[in-house]
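Hey all, quick one. A colleague (J.T.) asked me to put the iron/sulfur cluster job into the tracker so the inputs and the structure tokens live in one place instead of scattered across chat threads. No bug as far as I know, just bookkeeping. Sequence used:
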Amino acid sequence: MNFAGMINQSLLDYPGEIATVLFTRGCNFACPFCHNGHLLLNFNKDQRDEIELEKIMAFLEDRKGFIDAVVISGGEPTLYPELPETIRQIKGRGFLLKLDTNGTNSDMLSYLLQEKLLDYVAMDIKAPLEFKKYQEASGRLTNADFFNVRASVNLLMQADIRVEFRTTVVQELHSYEDIEAIARHITGAQLYSLQQFNPSNTLEPSFGSCLPYDKEQMEKLASLCAPYVKEVRVVNI
Ligand code: SF4
């Protein structure tokens, strides 16, 4: 399995650990607010060759004791059937593993949890779990994807690893009530992160002129979610 990009070391992507971040190419969603358009466009399986796994493994071997964790992000990493084997190789070298996912491959997520291949999962919840709203926020949505997103939420609510649910909050897509509805859906969750929308380099160009909720509004949203989950984190741009 090859990767489209890599951050050698990050203090932000796996809270509390020094992590290497790997990015996969391609996504089955097309969220209008997405900033990773460079990873999504021109997805072609024949072109998945930017950074070879062997090179990444050699890099990680070199930095054992300095790098604690590996974060696999995207795009959508679970589009790759080789992902479990890749994770097995990384974890076999003693690194913690965090997966960022949109939750559309609940079968793979279930397998990874069962095999104890994950230490931390951050899953996006794009909108309240209603088909039309989810379709609007994800850009495209099949019935199967929607079913799988709901199944992934259920799986992660029961998982005994670190779990973060997160939403990029966009005024055009989310009312206060929508964000509260998401928090209610994940009542009891460890962590719900609200990411302030950044209108630069959006996949859908018209979203570039949408104003983000300001800091005060983000705090208000956090206070609406607080009764439902153990921790709410606001990530401002
Ligand atoms: S923001 Fe949406 S389109 Fe972009 S990588 Fe994540 S799930 Fe895919």
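Adding what we noticed when we looked at it: The chain has a mean pLDDT of 95. Residues 27, 29-31, 34, 36, 40, 74-76, 102, 124 surround iron/sulfur cluster (CB under 6 Å).
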